[in-house]
Amino acid sequence: MENDQKQTGKCIIFSAPSGAGKTTIVRALLERMDELAFSISACSREPRVNELHKEDYYFLGVDGFKEEIADDSFIEWEEVYADHFYGTLKHEVDRLWSENKVVVFDVDVYGGINLKKYFGDSALSFFIQPPSVEVLEERLRKRQTETEDKIKTRMEKAGEELSKSVHFDKVVVNTDLELTIEEVEEMIKEYIKE
Q: Binding positions for ATP (predicted)?
């Protein structure tokens, strides 16, 4: 993927199998660190209960997402499942850099790999790993937001995603949430200072 954009800031990328805790970690870091700002991803799915357009995601629908692909509006995008697209809009990153923020991405594993390739040394990438596959399944079930079929699909995908951790700068096992947040915060502070 060619970088056709002028680099103007730094990025922090978080990826993990669904249920590993990355979104909880990202939210905690955003509350603790004023210099960070969340990059809102685009997706083709419908909003879940309590999700808002331009706050949780840019909810584009399948046709709208495909139009943005045709317009070359994305830094990266993936068809995660059939007709379930997720991606990072160029204008979103530009907006946050214009506010002198360090851009934080909460993306799937393939999105994380693509963002790291795109941004190179301007990004620090984290792979949040669950203590075990069993813990991951337990966390997905506790959410009570997924059907049995979705849980099965996510668990199959998790095995594949776990093998991709080697593509990230830092692999952090999320055994104790508070300790994980503190550990990641320290690493980010070091990176931002560079």
A: 16-23
